[in-house]
Each structure stands twice: as structure tokens, then as C-alpha cells.
Design goal:
Subcellular location: Cytoplasm
Strand order of the largest sheet: 2-1-5-4-3-6-7
Function: Thiol-specific peroxidase that catalyzes the reduction of hydrogen peroxide and organic hydroperoxides to water and alcohols, respectively. Plays a role in cell protection against oxidative stress by detoxifying peroxides.
Family: Belongs to the peroxiredoxin family. Prx6 subfamily. Belongs to the peroxiredoxin family. AhpC/Prx1 subfamily.
CATH architecture of the largest domain: 3-Layer(aba) Sandwich
CATH topology of the largest domain: Glutaredoxin
GO molecular function, one term: thioredoxin peroxidase activity
Order of helices and strands: HEEEHEHEHEEHEHEE
Number of helices: 6
Number of domains: 2
Keywords: Antioxidant, Cytoplasm, Disulfide bond, Oxidoreductase, Peroxidase, Redox-active center
CATH superfamily of the largest domain: Glutaredoxin
Radius of gyration: 21 Å
Length: 247
Amino acid sequence: MCEQKHQRESIVTGQSLAERPANEPAITTAAAAPRLNELAPDFRALTTHGPNQLTDYRGRWLVLFSHPSDFTPVCTTEFIAFAKAHPSFQAIECDLLGLSIDSVFSHIAWARNIKEKFGVEIPFPIIEDLSMRVAHAYGMVQPGASDTSAVRAVFVIDPESMLRAMLYYPMSNGRSVAEILRLVQALQTSDRQKVATPEGWTPGAEVIVPPPKTTAEADRRVTAGDPACVDWYFCKREAEEDLSTAS
């Protein structure tokens, strides 16, 4: 198991545990992850755009995402995809904020390299988290994957600073930025229209009406004969057009 863990980390960082400096402390435990529908952990950090804190984003949606390391292939593909999707996130009043346990100088050099080699400019800030404080506060450090890097984590935070969704990915596999955008759109639609969204929902598709909370309401649904209702607990309707349909 230890050998497999070392191999997974080496794939991403190019450095095995055995190659670390002897005086570099090992982290053996992970901080408790934050919980859904609670306030997201506050932070203040240095980024490629200057000092940054969570309260800067109050009133807007935020996708905070971590990556294992700068100058690695999978992370590079993800950042290119996030950069290309940045206008779509901005259109739904959602900001992007990256993070890794690298210095701001590394972030700047990597962003410049992406622009030079791939022709893509990174328009959003990237947090320097050398102390790992933000990473630990959000449960981004998973010792089973790596004890010196953040895993591929995604946190969707709403305008009230509430944590609405969390996603964790293995070190070896990149995320779908299109799915993250879709998730934010779905959350916004649920909030605005007081509905749920079915599997694979995309903006403009039918939404699910919340199930009845009383037997009388359930009876009314059955007797009403609404073709949008398959049964008393399962009804759909057309989604209203709103900001979350922007692309």
C-alpha cells in the first residue's frame, strides 16, 4: 500500500517520498473537511492577484479549487479548461480561485508558461498556500493520496459564503470543468426556482418539483391528472429562464 501511495504521488509531482529533504516534516493526519450548508472556512492568503480573502467574494458565487502542483501535465490541462470557461462562469456571477501548496512565484511562472506554450492566459487568481493552512481548513490534504500536496478538490461557495458542494478527485485524473459549471448552474436554478434538478440536467431542461409534504397534497397530485406527474412523488415542469441559463 505504501509503495502504491508513493507511486501515485510521484506521477503528479515527479518527487517520491524518499527524495524529500530529511528535515521536511511529514503530515500524518488530515484536518476535518468542512460540511455542506455550513459557512465555508474563512481565509486570508496571498495570490497571483495580490492579497485575497473569502469575504472578498461575498455577494457572488465562488468555485475554489485546488491542484496538486504547478508545472504538471494534468493540472495544466485543467487550468487551460478553467481559463477557457472563465467567461461562462463570469456570466453567471461566479468567480474562480485556484490553490496549491506552491509559492506565488511558482504560480506566476507557471501561468506565464501556459500563456507562452499554449496561448492561454490564466485570468483568475491562484492562492499561495505554503503553510497549508487553507488546504487543511478545507480538507484538501488527503494523506492516503499525498501528505505534501493538495488533492484535486472543488468547493462551490454561494453568495452568503455557505459551502454548497464539494468534489474530490484522485491525483491521476483531471476534472471536467464543464461539469463544475453545470453544477453551479444547477445550484443557482434550485435556489431561484425552488426546484430540484434531475440526473444530467442542463440549463433549459425540465426541473423536478419538490415532492408533497402532506397526504392531502399527494392526493391532489394523483387526482389532478397532470401529465407532468408520473406519480404523486415525481413531477416535472419546464424551467424558468434566468441567469443560470447563460453560457
